Amino acid sequence: MAGNFKLKIVTPSRSFFDGDVEMVIIRVSEGDMGILKDHEPVVSPVAIGPIRIKNVDGKFVEAACAGGFMTVTDEQTTIVTDAAEWAHEIDVERAKEALDRNRNRLDSDDHEVDVVRARTSLNRAMNRLRITGIDI
């Protein structure tokens, strides 16, 4: 059995999560990374994607993460992100509107569109909808 470790997830507006966990799976630039107790120390950028947390009771919970960075030390794993949301916190209609708006921007012939910003917003909206279980 791997054991438990301390996980903190913080955003500019709140402490999103602070507790003991068995495992966390988070999206980094190279793909998904799993963290267990006694993981090698690491600092890594975090990509837009889900955060899957295996609680000490062995059950997984999932949240949407808007990107940021992560540090893993002997004492704890800390994820700092612009935004993190549980599925029940997500405004589905707002996420659908953002998805449609950014798809339209990317499909337009307007050369003034900030493509990087539109793609990032599109990815955030898609991630938020996936967390709620909505097919996109």
UniProtKB/TrEMBL annotation:
Q: Which Gene3D superfamilies match?
A: ATP synthase delta/epsilon subunit, C-terminal domain (1.20.5.440), F0F1 ATP synthase delta/epsilon subunit, N-terminal (2.60.15.10)
Q: Start and end of every ATP synthase F1 complex delta/epsilon subunit N-terminal domain? A: 5-84
Q: InterPro entries, per this entry?
A: ATP_F1_dsu/esu_C_sf, ATP_synth_F1_dsu/esu, ATP_synth_F1_dsu/esu_N, ATP_synth_F1_esu_C, ATPsynth_dsu/esu_N
Give the record's GO CC terms.
plasma membrane; proton-transporting ATP synthase complex
Alphabetical keyword list: ATP synthesis, Cell membrane, CF(1), Hydrogen ion transport, Ion transport, Membrane, Transport
Locations listed in the record: Cell membrane
Its placement in the membrane is given as:
Peripheral membrane protein
Key word Zinc present in the record?
no
Query: For the ATP synthase epsilon subunit C-terminal domain, which residue ranges apply?
Result: 89-132
Q: What is its main location?
A: membrane
What Pfam families does the entry give? Answer: ATP-synt_DE, ATP-synt_DE_N
Superkingdom of the organism of origin: Bacteria
GO terms of molecular function: ATP binding; proton-transporting ATP synthase activity, rotational mechanism
| Entry function | Produces ATP from ADP in the presence of a proton gradient across the membrane.
Relate the assembly described in the record: F-type ATPases have 2 components, CF(1) - the catalytic core - and CF(0) - the membrane proton channel. CF(1) has five subunits: alpha(3), beta(3), gamma(1), delta(1), epsilon(1). CF(0) has three main subunits: a, b and c.
Q: Which family does it belong to?
A: Belongs to the ATPase epsilon chain family.
Name by which UniProt lists this protein: ATP synthase epsilon chain
Gene expressing this chain:
atpC
